[in-house]
Specification:
alpha/beta; Rossmann fold; 2 domains; 5-stranded parallel β-sheet; two-stranded antiparallel sheet; 9 helices; 11 strands; globular
Length: 260
Amino acid sequence: MSFTNKITLYDGRFNYPRKGFCSIVTQLLYIISEHNSFYGDKKICIGDPQVLELFENLNSEDALNYNPSKRWLDVFFTEPNTLLSTTYTAHMPANKQALLELNSCLNSTLKISPNILLKFTKLLDEHITDRTIGVQIRGTDKVSEIPPINDEQIISYIDYELENDDVDNIFLSTDDIRYIRLLTSHFGDKVTYNKSNIISNNEGAIHFNQTHDRNRVNYEVLSDTYLLSKCKKLLYCYSNVSQLALIMGINEFNKIKLLN
């Protein structure tokens, strides 16, 4: 029996409906890494419809004698310590070796669709220079997973970068209005962010809100992730957005620092 290598996360054990866009992308990259560890190639095809709204496959679909997504989950539940996704997760400090592997998986498999990349490039010109520091702070329901970052610590870290390095402005990526208010009240017009993005005003997670257009939410989070990946310096928190930004930009950053 042959299976497609067009991988998806449709196995019920993935809890797909609860996943945000960056979590979906990074999970697929972990599966590709697992496939590569056994077969020595990353020429695998993605079948996730949300991902394919914004990315294009670089590889054609081939037949395999196993299901890569199912295999990954089977190993995850039986021998998790053998997987990259347990030795480096979004709730761990950046691991350069793991990030380089995941970056290679991404670049061997997907590219941002040209029409989407054109829009991102325009945003890049608006928000990012060589003297911009990217800041990613996950708010809303994240407190149910890990303790929130201390406000004074956030301000202190950014103050240090502004005073001691060649930084002129701050690109903020967040899902929570509280952090926009925190940074703009302290740093004023040094702070830039995408004002057209949906933002949570009530600490509710955006990707769980059924009233939002999911395609729009995915586009906005990937646009922020892309911009973060183009900053020379990044202050990041434990989140899937930060993890994907680190994966995308690991070869470009001059400095990264964990806020948590």
